[in-house]
Protein backbone atom coordinates (compact mmCIF):
# COMPACT_ATOMS: atom_id res chain seq x y z
CA UNK A 1 0.00 0.00 0.00
CA UNK A 2 2.99 2.31 0.54
CA UNK A 3 3.58 2.65 -3.22
CA UNK A 4 -0.06 3.48 -3.89
CA UNK A 5 -0.77 7.20 -3.43
CA UNK A 6 -3.18 8.33 -0.75
CA UNK A 7 -6.18 10.42 -1.75
CA UNK A 8 -7.97 12.59 0.81
CA UNK A 9 -11.75 12.85 0.43
CA UNK A 10 -13.11 15.78 2.44
CA UNK A 11 -16.79 16.12 3.34
CA UNK A 12 -18.40 18.96 5.34
CA UNK A 13 -21.64 18.01 7.11
CA UNK A 14 -24.45 20.10 8.52
CA UNK A 15 -27.75 18.49 9.58
CA UNK A 16 -27.64 15.64 7.06
CA UNK A 17 -28.43 12.67 9.25
CA UNK A 18 -31.14 11.63 6.79
CA UNK A 19 -28.87 11.38 3.75
CA UNK A 20 -25.17 11.33 4.66
CA UNK A 21 -25.01 7.52 4.82
CA UNK A 22 -25.48 7.25 1.04
CA UNK A 23 -22.51 9.54 0.47
CA UNK A 24 -20.30 7.63 2.89
CA UNK A 25 -21.45 4.29 1.49
CA UNK A 26 -20.31 5.43 -1.97
CA UNK A 27 -16.87 6.27 -0.53
CA UNK A 28 -16.67 2.97 1.32
CA UNK A 29 -17.50 1.03 -1.85
CA UNK A 30 -14.63 2.50 -3.90
CA UNK A 31 -12.53 0.01 -5.83
CA UNK A 32 -9.48 2.14 -4.99
CA UNK A 33 -8.40 1.29 -1.49
CA UNK A 34 -5.83 3.84 -0.35
CA UNK A 35 -8.10 6.70 0.69
CA UNK A 36 -8.83 8.65 3.82
CA UNK A 37 -12.20 10.31 4.30
CA UNK A 38 -12.19 13.39 6.49
CA UNK A 39 -15.66 14.34 7.72
CA UNK A 40 -16.05 17.75 9.36
CA UNK A 41 -19.25 18.52 11.23
CA UNK A 42 -20.17 22.19 10.89
CA UNK A 43 -22.16 22.47 14.13
CA UNK A 44 -25.10 20.20 13.28
CA UNK A 45 -28.16 20.54 15.48
CA UNK A 46 -29.76 17.24 14.46
CA UNK A 47 -28.40 13.80 15.25
CA UNK A 48 -25.64 13.95 12.61
CA UNK A 49 -22.74 13.82 15.08
CA UNK A 50 -24.04 10.77 16.93
CA UNK A 51 -24.82 9.01 13.66
CA UNK A 52 -21.38 9.75 12.21
CA UNK A 53 -19.64 8.68 15.41
CA UNK A 54 -21.19 5.25 14.96
CA UNK A 55 -20.76 5.08 11.19
CA UNK A 56 -17.00 5.68 11.19
CA UNK A 57 -16.53 2.52 13.28
CA UNK A 58 -17.09 0.63 10.03
CA UNK A 59 -13.66 1.59 8.71
CA UNK A 60 -10.55 3.19 10.20
CA UNK A 61 -10.04 5.25 7.04
CA UNK A 62 -12.87 7.54 8.15
CA UNK A 63 -11.87 10.46 10.40
CA UNK A 64 -14.47 12.64 12.12
CA UNK A 65 -13.90 16.18 13.40
CA UNK A 66 -15.90 19.14 14.59
CA UNK A 67 -15.17 22.45 12.92
CA UNK A 68 -13.15 24.47 15.47
CA UNK A 69 -14.34 27.88 16.58
CA UNK A 70 -11.42 29.61 14.89
CA UNK A 71 -12.87 28.67 11.47
CA UNK A 72 -15.92 30.50 10.15
CA UNK A 73 -19.17 28.57 10.28
CA UNK A 74 -20.31 27.26 6.93
CA UNK A 75 -19.22 24.65 4.47
CA UNK A 76 -16.07 26.49 3.37
CA UNK A 77 -14.68 26.72 6.89
CA UNK A 78 -15.28 22.99 7.35
CA UNK A 79 -13.71 22.21 3.96
CA UNK A 80 -10.60 24.22 4.79
CA UNK A 81 -10.22 22.59 8.19
CA UNK A 82 -10.56 19.18 6.55
CA UNK A 83 -7.84 20.08 4.07
CA UNK A 84 -5.47 21.06 6.88
CA UNK A 85 -6.03 17.62 8.43
CA UNK A 86 -5.49 15.77 5.15
CA UNK A 87 -2.40 13.73 4.32
CA UNK A 88 -3.08 12.68 0.74
CA UNK A 89 -1.12 13.32 -2.42
CA UNK A 90 -4.45 14.10 -4.06
CA UNK A 91 -7.59 15.73 -2.71
CA UNK A 92 -11.28 15.49 -3.56
CA UNK A 93 -14.06 17.53 -1.94
CA UNK A 94 -17.58 16.12 -1.73
CA UNK A 95 -20.79 17.59 -0.35
CA UNK A 96 -22.72 15.57 2.18
CA UNK A 97 -25.37 14.52 -0.36
CA UNK A 98 -23.05 13.66 -3.27
CA UNK A 99 -22.60 10.13 -4.57
CA UNK A 100 -19.55 8.83 -6.41
CA UNK A 101 -19.51 5.71 -8.56
CA UNK A 102 -17.46 2.70 -7.53
CA UNK A 103 -14.52 3.19 -9.93
CA UNK A 104 -14.30 7.00 -9.90
CA UNK A 105 -11.39 7.43 -7.47
CA UNK A 106 -9.43 4.59 -9.11
CA UNK A 107 -9.83 6.08 -12.59
CA UNK A 108 -8.96 9.63 -11.53
CA UNK A 109 -5.90 8.65 -9.49
CA UNK A 110 -4.70 6.35 -12.28
CA UNK A 111 -4.94 9.22 -14.77
CA UNK A 112 -2.95 11.54 -12.50
CA UNK A 113 -0.30 8.88 -11.85
CA UNK A 114 0.19 8.29 -15.57
CA UNK A 115 1.40 11.85 -16.09
CA UNK A 116 3.14 13.86 -13.38
CA UNK A 117 2.40 17.08 -15.28
CA UNK A 118 -1.32 16.62 -14.76
CA UNK A 119 -2.68 18.76 -11.94
CA UNK A 120 -6.43 18.18 -12.22
CA UNK A 121 -8.74 15.50 -13.60
CA UNK A 122 -12.52 15.45 -13.88
CA UNK A 123 -15.35 13.16 -14.93
CA UNK A 124 -18.88 13.50 -16.27
CA UNK A 125 -21.83 13.79 -13.91
CA UNK A 126 -25.47 12.88 -13.47
CA UNK A 127 -28.10 15.19 -12.04
CA UNK A 128 -30.58 13.51 -9.70
CA UNK A 129 -33.71 15.63 -10.10
CA UNK A 130 -35.77 13.60 -7.63
CA UNK A 131 -35.97 10.04 -6.37
CA UNK A 132 -37.16 8.69 -9.71
CA UNK A 133 -35.54 10.90 -12.34
CA UNK A 134 -32.00 11.55 -13.42
CA UNK A 135 -30.28 13.13 -16.41
CA UNK A 136 -26.69 13.05 -17.57
CA UNK A 137 -24.82 16.30 -17.94
CA UNK A 138 -22.25 14.31 -19.87
CA UNK A 139 -18.65 15.41 -20.10
CA UNK A 140 -17.39 18.85 -21.08
CA UNK A 141 -15.36 17.94 -24.14
CA UNK A 142 -11.73 18.65 -23.37
CA UNK A 143 -9.70 15.45 -23.36
CA UNK A 144 -6.65 17.33 -22.13
CA UNK A 145 -5.36 20.89 -22.08
CA UNK A 146 -4.84 23.77 -19.69
CA UNK A 147 -7.17 24.97 -16.97
CA UNK A 148 -7.63 28.17 -19.00
CA UNK A 149 -8.84 26.14 -21.98
CA UNK A 150 -11.39 24.35 -19.82
CA UNK A 151 -12.67 27.65 -18.42
CA UNK A 152 -13.05 29.02 -21.95
CA UNK A 153 -14.87 25.86 -22.97
CA UNK A 154 -17.23 26.34 -20.02
CA UNK A 155 -17.87 29.92 -21.16
CA UNK A 156 -18.70 28.82 -24.71
CA UNK A 157 -21.11 26.00 -23.91
CA UNK A 158 -22.35 27.45 -20.58
CA UNK A 159 -21.89 24.16 -18.76
CA UNK A 160 -20.03 23.72 -15.49
CA UNK A 161 -18.26 21.19 -13.34
CA UNK A 162 -18.55 20.59 -9.62
CA UNK A 163 -15.88 19.72 -7.03
CA UNK A 164 -17.17 16.17 -6.68
CA UNK A 165 -16.27 15.54 -10.33
CA UNK A 166 -12.66 16.52 -9.73
CA UNK A 167 -9.51 15.21 -8.16
CA UNK A 168 -6.77 17.78 -7.62
CA UNK A 169 -3.06 17.30 -7.11
CA UNK A 170 -2.47 18.73 -3.66
CA UNK A 171 0.53 20.82 -4.73
CA UNK A 172 -1.86 23.12 -6.64
CA UNK A 173 -3.68 24.36 -3.53
CA UNK A 174 -0.88 26.57 -2.09
CA UNK A 175 -1.00 28.53 -5.38
CA UNK A 176 -4.79 28.68 -5.80
CA UNK A 177 -5.60 29.22 -2.13
CA UNK A 178 -8.26 27.49 -0.07
CA UNK A 179 -12.03 28.03 -0.12
CA UNK A 180 -13.26 31.58 0.51
CA UNK A 181 -14.98 31.39 3.90
CA UNK A 182 -16.77 34.71 3.33
CA UNK A 183 -18.82 33.39 0.41
CA UNK A 184 -22.22 31.78 0.95
CA UNK A 185 -23.24 31.07 -2.67
CA UNK A 186 -21.18 29.92 -5.68
CA UNK A 187 -18.26 29.06 -3.42
CA UNK A 188 -17.44 26.09 -5.65
CA UNK A 189 -17.39 28.18 -8.83
CA UNK A 190 -15.07 30.78 -7.32
CA UNK A 191 -12.78 28.12 -5.81
CA UNK A 192 -12.54 26.02 -8.97
CA UNK A 193 -11.79 29.14 -11.02
CA UNK A 194 -8.73 29.83 -8.86
CA UNK A 195 -7.67 26.19 -9.06
CA UNK A 196 -7.99 26.01 -12.84
CA UNK A 197 -6.04 29.19 -13.61
CA UNK A 198 -3.18 27.57 -11.69
CA UNK A 199 -3.28 24.29 -13.62
CA UNK A 200 -0.92 24.07 -16.60
CA UNK A 201 -2.25 20.66 -17.58
CA UNK A 202 -5.58 18.96 -16.89
CA UNK A 203 -7.49 16.02 -18.34
CA UNK A 204 -10.91 14.45 -18.36
CA UNK A 205 -11.86 10.80 -18.00
CA UNK A 206 -14.65 9.43 -20.14
CA UNK A 207 -16.72 8.20 -17.21
CA UNK A 208 -19.96 9.36 -15.60
CA UNK A 209 -18.68 9.01 -12.07
CA UNK A 210 -20.50 11.61 -10.00
CA UNK A 211 -24.14 12.03 -9.00
CA UNK A 212 -25.41 15.43 -7.88
CA UNK A 213 -28.74 15.90 -6.11
CA UNK A 214 -30.58 18.95 -7.40
CA UNK A 215 -33.40 18.44 -4.90
CA UNK A 216 -31.16 18.78 -1.86
CA UNK A 217 -28.92 21.45 -3.37
CA UNK A 218 -31.73 23.98 -2.98
CA UNK A 219 -31.80 23.38 0.78
CA UNK A 220 -28.29 24.80 1.16
CA UNK A 221 -29.42 28.33 0.23
CA UNK A 222 -32.92 28.11 1.71
CA UNK A 223 -31.94 30.59 4.44
CA UNK A 224 -31.79 33.41 1.89
CA UNK A 225 -34.60 35.06 -0.07
CA UNK A 226 -34.37 35.28 -3.86
CA UNK A 227 -32.96 38.81 -3.87
CA UNK A 228 -30.25 37.90 -1.35
CA UNK A 229 -29.27 34.85 -3.41
CA UNK A 230 -28.83 36.97 -6.53
CA UNK A 231 -26.66 39.53 -4.76
CA UNK A 232 -24.52 36.89 -3.03
CA UNK A 233 -23.97 35.04 -6.31
CA UNK A 234 -22.97 38.20 -8.19
CA UNK A 235 -20.57 39.13 -5.41
CA UNK A 236 -18.81 35.83 -6.03
CA UNK A 237 -18.57 36.77 -9.71
CA UNK A 238 -17.07 40.11 -8.72
CA UNK A 239 -14.28 38.19 -6.99
CA UNK A 240 -13.74 36.08 -10.10
CA UNK A 241 -13.71 39.25 -12.20
CA UNK A 242 -11.09 40.82 -9.95
CA UNK A 243 -8.88 37.74 -10.43
CA UNK A 244 -9.25 38.05 -14.20
CA UNK A 245 -8.44 41.78 -14.17
CA UNK A 246 -5.09 41.32 -12.42
CA UNK A 247 -3.91 38.74 -14.95
CA UNK A 248 -1.39 39.96 -17.51
CA UNK A 249 -2.58 37.52 -20.15
CA UNK A 250 -5.76 38.24 -22.10
CA UNK A 251 -6.59 34.55 -22.42
CA UNK A 252 -10.03 34.20 -20.85
CA UNK A 253 -12.19 36.04 -23.38
CA UNK A 254 -14.54 33.13 -24.09
CA UNK A 255 -15.03 32.48 -20.41
CA UNK A 256 -15.63 36.16 -19.61
CA UNK A 257 -18.00 36.79 -22.51
CA UNK A 258 -19.90 33.54 -22.09
CA UNK A 259 -20.52 33.82 -18.37
CA UNK A 260 -21.21 37.56 -18.27
CA UNK A 261 -23.51 37.46 -21.31
CA UNK A 262 -25.44 34.60 -19.73
CA UNK A 263 -25.80 36.41 -16.39
CA UNK A 264 -26.73 39.71 -18.07
CA UNK A 265 -29.42 38.09 -20.25
CA UNK A 266 -30.73 36.10 -17.30
CA UNK A 267 -31.28 39.21 -15.17
CA UNK A 268 -32.73 41.11 -18.10
CA UNK A 269 -35.20 38.28 -18.69
CA UNK A 270 -36.32 38.64 -15.07
CA UNK A 271 -36.42 42.44 -15.50
CA UNK A 272 -33.97 42.86 -12.67
CA UNK A 273 -32.71 46.21 -13.94
CA UNK A 274 -31.80 47.40 -10.46
CA UNK A 275 -29.51 44.40 -9.98
CA UNK A 276 -27.76 45.06 -13.30
CA UNK A 277 -27.14 48.70 -12.43
CA UNK A 278 -25.96 47.80 -8.93
CA UNK A 279 -23.35 45.53 -10.54
CA UNK A 280 -22.80 47.75 -13.59
CA UNK A 281 -19.02 47.41 -13.39
CA UNK A 282 -19.41 43.65 -13.81
CA UNK A 283 -21.74 44.11 -16.80
CA UNK A 284 -20.12 47.24 -18.26
CA UNK A 285 -19.35 45.69 -21.66
CA UNK A 286 -22.85 44.24 -21.99
CA UNK A 287 -24.46 47.57 -21.11
CA UNK A 288 -22.25 49.47 -23.59
CA UNK A 289 -23.18 47.03 -26.35
CA UNK A 290 -26.91 47.10 -25.54
CA UNK A 291 -28.84 48.28 -28.63
CA UNK A 292 -32.43 47.99 -27.45
CA UNK A 293 -33.80 51.38 -26.52
CA UNK A 294 -36.47 49.95 -24.23
CA UNK A 295 -33.69 48.37 -22.13
CA UNK A 296 -31.48 51.46 -22.15
CA UNK A 297 -34.40 53.60 -21.01
CA UNK A 298 -34.59 51.40 -17.92
CA UNK A 299 -30.87 51.09 -17.21
CA UNK A 300 -29.35 54.49 -17.89
CA UNK A 301 -31.48 56.61 -15.51
CA UNK A 302 -30.77 54.11 -12.71
CA UNK A 303 -27.04 54.27 -13.42
CA UNK A 304 -27.08 58.09 -13.41
CA UNK A 305 -28.87 58.13 -10.06
CA UNK A 306 -26.35 55.67 -8.61
CA UNK A 307 -23.43 57.81 -9.81
CA UNK A 308 -24.95 60.98 -8.36
CA UNK A 309 -25.66 59.26 -5.06
CA UNK A 310 -22.11 57.87 -4.87
CA UNK A 311 -20.68 61.32 -5.66
CA UNK A 312 -22.75 62.99 -2.95
CA UNK A 313 -21.66 60.41 -0.37
CA UNK A 314 -18.03 60.96 -1.31
Any overview of this molecule?
The protein has 314 residues and is an alpha/beta fold. It has 13 helices and ten strands. Strands 1, 2, 3, 4, 5, 6, 7, 8, 9 and 10 form a ten-stranded mixed β-sheet that branches. The N and C termini lie far apart (64 Å). The model has no long low-confidence stretch (mean pLDDT 89).
What's the helix and strand layout?
Layout: E1 7-13, H1 20-28, E2 35-41, H2 48-55, E3 62-66, H3 75-85, E4 90-93, E5 99-100, H4 104-114, E6 120-128, E7 134-138, E8 144-145, H5 147-157, E9 166-169, H6 173-176, H7 187-196, E10 202-213, H8 214-220, H9 226-245, H10 253-269, H11 273-278, H12 284-288, H13 293-313
Parallel strand pairs: 1-2, 1-4, 2-3, 6-10
Antiparallel strand pairs: 4-9, 5-10, 6-7, 6-9, 8-10
Features:
314 residues
The main sheet comes to: 10 strands, mixed
Portion in helices: 40-55%
Low-pLDDT stretches are none
Number of strands: 10
Q: How do the SSEs run, as a string of H and E?
A: EHEHEHEEHEEEHEHHEHHHHHH
Structural class: alpha/beta
User: What is the residue-averaged pLDDT?
Assistant: 89
Strand content: 15-25%
Annotation field: number of helices? 13
What general form does the structure show?
globular
Whole-number radius of gyration? 21 Å
Distance between the termini: 64 Å
Short synopsis of the structure:
With 314 residues, the chain is an alpha/beta fold.
Amino acid sequence: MNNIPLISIIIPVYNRVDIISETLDSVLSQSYQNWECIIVDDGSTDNSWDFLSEYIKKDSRFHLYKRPNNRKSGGCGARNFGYLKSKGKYVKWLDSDDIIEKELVEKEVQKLEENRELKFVYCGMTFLEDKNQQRNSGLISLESGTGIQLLNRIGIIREYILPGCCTIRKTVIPFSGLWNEELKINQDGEFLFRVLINCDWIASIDYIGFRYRLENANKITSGYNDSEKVILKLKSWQLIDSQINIRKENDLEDYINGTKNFLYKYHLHLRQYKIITEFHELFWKQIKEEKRKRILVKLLPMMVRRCISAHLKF
